Structures are given as structure tokens and as C-alpha cells.
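Checklist before submission:
- one chain only
- standard amino acids only
- sequence pasted in full

Submission:
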Amino acid sequence: MASILVPVAYVVLVFGSLFVFSHFYRKRLASQPFEPYFPPHVERNTYVTLLQKSDPPTPEPILKAALVRRAVADVLRVLKVREDKPALQNLLQKGSIGDDLWNSLLAAEKELEGEVSEVIAEAESYLPRWGELIFQTANEVIANDRIRASFEQINQNKAKLGEFTPVLYPAMC
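Returned file contents:
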């Protein structure tokens, strides 16, 4: 009886100590602040600054343009989260990344949900039903920016090709 009791007590002691260590270690990690997934939201800060300006009040068209820019930044962030989430989930399951990066992504996703609803509410305050259309407008702005960037790239490539003069070889007879 004593010969079986000692190994069982040893196994219980080892697994118990691992459980206690794991519990306190995870509790300590959960209490640490994690690094934000996105950099500071410059467009939101710009919009809020323009909105709070009261000495000469900001004209409404400028506020609307700032709100559209804020929506554009939000759409880009949503697209980034949608693109990164499946890859990070696979890496998390394989153990290649830590929980801190995953928690940072989830916090960014939750923050984006609040940001989107805030932008919709702000848009509704300017024009009724504009909250439904502001993100469509933001997608059009993004598409226009991408097309403009591709045209600029084409013009740069044309300029580079224009620098080279073709060498003409005399026809062989």
C-alpha cells in the first residue's frame, strides 16, 4: 500500500504545483497592459479637434470632409483586421505567437466596432441617412486613391522607360 501511495502523492504534488504556477502566471500576464494593434488614430483626433474648435467655429464642409477621412481610416483598419485575423488565429493555434498579440487584435476589433458606430452617429447628426452611406463613400475614396496611385506608378514607369534610348542595330544582309 505504501509503495503505491508514494508515487501517487508525487504525481499529485507535481501536477498541483504546475496548476498553481500556471494559475498565478496567467493571472499576472492578464493584468499586464498589452501593446495596441494599431497606431494612434490620427484622423479621429483631427476630427475631434476640429469639432471642439470654437474661437472661429470650423465650417461644416470641413467637418464633413474630416468625418469622411475618419471613415476611410476606419475602413482600412477593418480590412486589415479581416485580413490578419485568420492568419493570426492559425498561428495562435500552432503556438507561433503569444496570447498578447491575439488579445491585442481582439481589443482592436472591439474598438473598431465602437468607432464605426460612433462615425455612423456623427454622420447622422449632419444629414439624415448619411450614416448608411458614409462607409460606401469611404470605400469609393479608397478605390479612387488606389487608382490614382496606380496611374502615378504607370507614369513613373513611363518616365523611367523614356530615359533609355533604344539601340538600333543595322539590318544584317
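Reviewer check: DSSP finds five helices and no strands in the chain.
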